[in-house]
Amino acid sequence: MPAIFHVDQAATFRMVMFLSSSPKLVFGSQTQQDVTSDGTPKWVVEVVAGFEQFGRVTNEVLKIGVASHRDPAEALGGMPQPVHLNGFRVGVAPVETKKDKNGNDVVRGGTAWYAADGIVAANAVPASRKTASQEG
Q1: Better-scored residue on pLDDT, 123 or 21
Q2: Which residues contact 130 (CB under 8 A, 6 or more apart)?
Q3: What's the pLDDT tens digit per position in 9-35?
Q4: Residue 126: per-residue pLDDT
Q5: For residue 18, what are the CA distances in angstroms to 14, 77, 95, 106?
Q6: What pTM does this model have?
Q7: How far apart are CA 87 and CA 74, in angstroms?
Q8: Rounded distance between C-alpha atoms, residue 10 and residue 133, angstroms
Q9: Using CA atoms, how far apart are residues 74 and 95, in angstroms rounded to an integer?
């Protein structure tokens, strides 16, 4: 079964609002920004996404990984605003059981992660790709 799913943002969310962007740090580091295998810096973009669930709108903050040579917030002026996530995808880390230092089984994985190729202001997206709430 595939572990990465590409998401149709307009069909999934009522709205997506940019909140912030920050460098993704190397695991265990307090200052070193992580990079992809080709040296592209990694960023963590936080958005609030609104979606309908059981007839009610639910909002959730999502942390989305973006690889870019520039801070994704630059093009947005760093301001909270409706956005479109280009190439938005969701992955699921596989569940695995490992032994800890005491020999006990520890279950890891089974969690979702989010990534996008880029982020743009919703008003820069053609109307055919927007949700009704993004057009208003």
Answers
A1: 21
A2: 10, 84, 122
A3: 999 999 999 999 999 999 999 999 999
A4: 63
A5: 14, 11, 30, 35
A6: 0.80
A7: 19
A8: 10
A9: 36
